[in-house]
Amino acid sequence: MRYFKKIKGDRIYLSPINKDDVEIYTKWLNDIDVSGNLGLYKQLITLNNEEKILDRITSEGHNYAIVLNDSDTLIGNIGFNELENIGRKATVGLFIGEPENRGKGYGAEALRLMLDYGFKHLNLHNIMLHVNSDNEQGIACYKKVGFREFGRRRESVFKNGQYYDNVHMDILRSEFYN
Question: Is 142 noted as a catalytic residue in this protein?
Fold first, then answer.
């Protein structure tokens, strides 16, 4: 079996990452639309580099593959980083790899599953994320789930010959379950 239904949703589930997917992750992370939103557009992502990254993220933290329920097809990735147990906080990041899977609500569903898992099972209180101001689709998704902007680092992202703000958003446990 390639994937395991760790966290189940209506249309997707979150599975531990399968390191055999290194080629698809490398493809996605070399797509400027994906890497540009992750801040990786200036990095060269090779199979060897991505293999090392997958080794690291599968052995630490809470990082998951986003998989379609009906076909067991990998469509993206989501995970907590900067997880701090004492402060009960974490940072979440996600991406949907193929353009045809974007804009269908999969990211919002994955985010809701991850937030529920973080608040109920990891006892988190505050979960935040960072997003570039030009990622309007991502910002709309995050607001739809309940994230609120709490600050910006102005013109701190240089991409495609322009500067963009880095937007900081978060959500509290009480806001998510409200």
Answer: yes
